[in-house]
Write a structure and sequence with these properties.
Blueprint: E1 7-10, H1 20-33, H2 40-58, H3 62-76, H4 83-98, H5 107-117, E2 120-125, H6 128-138, E3 146-150, H7 155-164, E4 172-176, H8 179-188, E5 192-195, E6 218-219, H9 226-236
Parallel strand pairs: 1-2, 1-4, 2-3, 4-5, 5-6
Helix pairs in contact: 1-4, 2-3, 3-4, 7-8
The protein binds magnesium ion.
Length: 237
């Protein structure tokens, strides 16, 4: 039976391992640091605005997040944030970068099974160094034929990955937790996508459901359902 795809790319953060809870917990500590100055809701709003504005300059990942927290702290305290407090923010970032990589339950078995029948790529955005060390610490490295760490996930970068790997768009499948990054641009590039939601979603990654109206993609509750879903795809092609 012909396999339905030549290459399956898997997102990493919140698809293979837990990530957003670390940002969430750090943001909670950041809020506590500024609690004497503003309300939690206003701190969150200003931080989100700063992060959004800085993405084009610092890119995705922990380092950009740390710089945005520092900038927000300076802004919200009108310059009164102390050197000691800035150091605390940097320490928060360092803890995130050295925290253990916690695989989502069942991921190892699911990826092992997929790797027996398919070429797998890890396709993620963020800091190159951070993502590489997370993959190494995850213990999943040997299951992937390719690792692609990109600065932004859009139709152009997906097409570039397909071209680099010699895969036709219709033979490419992306699997991930973000509709904005892992689903919509892949469909735009002519590939297929499977959405595996994660309980927490960064505000920046949220898209209205109506953006998906009429799009052909699948939503699975867990990555362990992927093999079975692939079986149904093979049968229908
Ligand atoms: Mg993700």
């Amino acid at each position: 039976m012909l396999a339905p795809f030549d290459l399956i790319a898997l997102d990493a953060d919140d698809t293979l391992w837990h990530n957003e809870p670390k940002f969430y917990a750090t943001q909670e500590q950041f809020r506590a640091l500024l609690t004497g100055y503003h309300t939690p809701a206003w701190i969150d709003e200003r931080l989100h605005e700063t992060e959004k504005r800085n993405l084009a300059h610092f890119g995705y990942g922990v380092k950009g997040f740390v710089l945005s927290m520092i900038e927000t702290a300076v802004e919200l305290t009108e310059g009164r944030v102390s050197g000691q407090e800035v150091k605390q923010i940097i320490d928060l970032g360092r803890s995130m970068l050295t925290a253990p990589v916690e695989l989502i339950d069942g991921v190892r078995e699911a990826v092992e099974q997929l790797s027996r029948d398919y070429q797998l790529a890890l396709l993620t955005k963020g800091d190159l160094f951070d993502q590489e060390t997370k993959l190494a610490r995850s213990g999943l490295g040997e299951l992937f034929s390719h690792v692609e760490i990109v600065s932004e996930k859009n139709a152009v970068t997906y097409l570039a990955v397909m071209k680099r790997r010699g895969v036709e768009p219709s033979r490419f499948l992306m699997v991930g937790n973000s509709l904005r990054s892992d689903v919509l641009p892949v469909l735009e590039a002519g590939g297929a996508a499977v959405h595996v939601p994660y309980p927490l979603t960064w505000a920046h990654e949220e898209v209205p459901e109506d953006a998906l109206a009429g799009k052909h993609f699948a939503r699975l509750q867990h990555i362990r359902e992927l093999s079975e879903w692939l079986g149904t795809q093979a049968a229908s092609r």
